[in-house]
Specification:
The structure is a homodimer of 281-residue chains. Chain A is of the alpha/beta class and 281 residues long. Chain A folds into 2 domains: 115 residues, 60s Ribosomal Protein L30, Chain: A; 154 residues, SPOUT methyltransferase, trefoil knot domain (Alpha/beta knot, 3-Layer(aba) Sandwich), CATH 3.40.1280.10. The first copy, chain A, is built from 11 helices and 12 strands. In chain A, helix 3 runs parallel beside helix 4 and helix 7 runs parallel beside helix 11. Chain A is elongated and about 60 Å long. Chains A and B meet through helix 7 and helix 11 of A and helix 7 and helix 11 of B. Chains A, B: InterPro entries: Alpha/beta_knot_MTases (IPR029028), Ribosomal_eL30-like_sf (IPR029064), rRNA_Methyltransferase (IPR051259), SpoU_MeTrfase (IPR001537), tRNA_m1G_MTases_N (IPR029026). Chains A, B: GO terms for molecular function: RNA binding; RNA methyltransferase activity. Chains A, B: Keywords: Methyltransferase, Transferase. Chains A, B: This is SpoU rRNA methylase family protein.
Chain lengths: 281, 281
């Protein structure tokens, strides 16, 4: 997509920087009181932070971005990436003290961007669009933004084709989830899929083999042969998947020490995706 | 060890509860201003939080514990575990408001315990004490307490025999690291092993085969056959292991998507330990 953006713009048009010296400048209103906006929500906008995430977004064409705010000190190390942005994306530059006053805390990373979340296609449509060999992550009630971000990071690292979320899952575009995902939650195709039952029906209807992770799983992860259309279902932190889901699904476990059978769900997703992925493992 | 504690005490001696109604009560000084103490350090003491961690500690005999502080509301659900404690460990009980005033924030878990970190044996001694089939985790410069806790949780879940830390690693007994480890950092045998070079020498001298994790690793994780005495070395967040370490060691990588080769180090440890563990995977 980076090539698309480059093709639509003369490569030599210089990057225009907009200096900001007043924390109350209305042009940077989206960046004001970052943590309070985390709580009240950003109405379809997301906030991305840091060099690695912004590089990922610009490498994907930056077409979702509304604007960027960087500190003067951070500008030199990110300028080459900003140069890839479409020229209609304003790049604001502020001194560290002004930037801190805008966001409401000391923002040592010095790099922020606001974008618009892509409209999601319905889960059945997303699943139908995937290739004959495909790997899907399905999530039931993941409530913690660290875990959500970690799962998306793993999904991107192991080349999962999509992540489906049931209606009880938290928002993968919450600021902290984006940060923990290192931006993956902005690039991996995602759909809300209704209730867990509706999500499972959509997965089955699209011809995916579903495995559900549980410490009480009847098979071991290593028993599963990667291939075809596969989906792995992970349950909420603590209680895990409900009994009725486990009763109606092929269940797998990860063998653990008898005295300490406790894995974080994001780590579990990494282990499962490493086994099922097509990245060559 | 739970049986040891039981054997040394009459099982029927009732649990003595010490009511606390004054936040300034000197008997609960160790619990005062919890977050400030995180910063200044606890001089060899650790603070454990929550039901799961306290159950783990009591199941291990509770011999490292100095005292416990629980809220009245939390007492009923933890009383059976507290009953396993040696009777010389005082159990303080406070109302939620008093407990909040003691610790300095709203402590919704309502369960805290202070203990003394066990004296560490030197790394060579710890390694020599391990069986002929053994799995060791070696850490270079892990700086983030979440990652440290996550690695210990994985070490416990996959039955690793020990964790070695170089001198640049953060403290696995920091309050947050204990919490994220779900208590594992209190029970997995651990040693500080000096510089990374000294740590690697101790591992080699004890007859362990060492593999170092790196995205540029020359072999794949799946090429490694589990067995014998093995150690896996993980490097600091971001830069990873330094070139001189990678040049002198057998290096392995986890295959990832070309466009997103980024895994969290705790997740990486989970994937590696799942492959190498003796828990039956």
């Amino acid at each position: 997509m980076s090539s698309l953006a480059t093709a639509s713009l003369p490569a030599h048009e210089p990057l225009r920087l907009i200096p900001v010296s007043d924390p109350d400048d209305p042009r940077i209103a989206d960046y004001r009181d970052v943590r309070e906006r985390d709580l009240v929500g950003r109405r379809g906008l997301f906030m991305a932070e840091g060099e690695v995430v912004l590089r990922l977004l610009t490498a994907h064409g930056g077409r979702d971005l509304h604007s960027v705010l960087v500190s003067q000190a951070s500008l030199p190390r990110i300028a080459d990436a900003l140069d890839l942005l479409p020229r209609n994306v304003p790049v604001h530059v502020a001194g560290q003290a002004v930037m801190d006053a805008i966001v409401g805390f000391h923002i040592h990373r010095g790099i922020l961007a606001v974008g618009r979340a892509r409209p999601q296609v319905p889960a059945p449509e997303l699943l139908a669009s995937l290739p004959e060999r495909a790997l899907v992550v399905a999530l039931q009630g993941i409530a913690n933004h660290d875990n959500m971000g970690g799962i998306f990071r793993n999904a991107a690292a192991f080349g999962a084709d999509a992540v489906l979320l049931d209606s009880a899952c938290c928002d993968p575009l919450y600021r902290k989830a984006i940060r923990v995902s290192v931006g993956a939650s902005l690039i991996v195709p995602t759909a809300r899929a209704g209730t867990t039952a509706e999500m499972m029906e959509a997965i089955a209807a699209a011809g995916f083999d579903l495995v559900a992770l549980s410490p009480s799983g009847r098979e071991r992860l290593s028993d599963i042969v990667p291939g075809g259309r596969q989906a792995a279902l992970f349950g909420t932190e603590g209680p895990g998947l409900p009994p009725e889901v486990l009763a109606s699904t092929r269940t797998i476990s990860i063998p653990m020490a008898a005295s300490f059978d406790s894995l974080n769900v994001a780590t579990t997703s990494g282990i499962v995706l490493h086994h099922l992925s097509r990245t060559g493992g």
